[in-house]
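subagent[fold] <- orchestrator: predict structure for attached chain, return tokens only, no commentary.
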Amino acid sequence: MEYPYDDMCDIVVKCSVARAGHLVDCIRRTVPIKTRCDSIPSEIKYHFFVEIVPIFCGDLIFLPPNIAATLGANIVICTRVAKKITLLDPFTLTAFSLKADEYWNAPFTHSFTRTQLVKYVVLDIVLQEEEEIAAAAAKKYRLADAVVARVEDFGNNDTTFQIKTHLGHILKSGDYALGYDLSGRKEGGGANTNINGDLPAAILITKSSYDEENGRIVVVVEGKWESDYQLFLKDLQQDTRLTFRVAAMYRNQTYHPSSGEAIREHFTRPSVPLEELQD
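subagent[fold] -> orchestrator:
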């Protein structure tokens, strides 16, 4: 079977109709999905098909023209995937939320995903003057002008990039960060976007620590599946609500989230000690 996106797969679960319905409801309360139910009367069987949005936290997205016109942004970063998809314009600090039906009415996918992150070192950073911004995201992020270099280039050549970043509140000179390298894509975002001008040389996504003893950045480990697992643990550390749901699912078999439970979108991400995830 051919899939429209990379790393897609089929997961087949055989169970009763009631259990299948509960499973679909559980997934729907966690991430935006699209469902379909087919019945086979002659065999007394029901098939539930569930498609999860192919967008992940940390993805960089060049929005299609119709979505870009609606949101007022061409390039966004996915900052959260829950019942809604939260997108951030890294150049204006404007945040947007898309419900499942809004996404599936005009679906799109990422332009860059976390497996394509490149390591950068921050050589200089200057905060931009703060302005009165009503968006909640502005309380979490800070715009800054930065000079960065790819870690693989640092010490080998003098290639540097002057960029704008939304991580001015946490980055300083000498820090390391992960971002997407757009320096080789000066032709724009592609035929399906409104991005016709020059792209920024890089867009930083997150700050990362550096292991001086081993001389490497400690975020992505070798091996695709290990990397995905490490990223999942990082998401759990940064999202207390997700941690609670996972812990409740595995430690208390009688736990069932309320169908009316509301998830309030906010932009603060408290950290959870890793030890709590390893009990």
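orchestrator: received. Logging for downstream: The chain has a mean pLDDT of 74. The chain has six helices and twelve strands.
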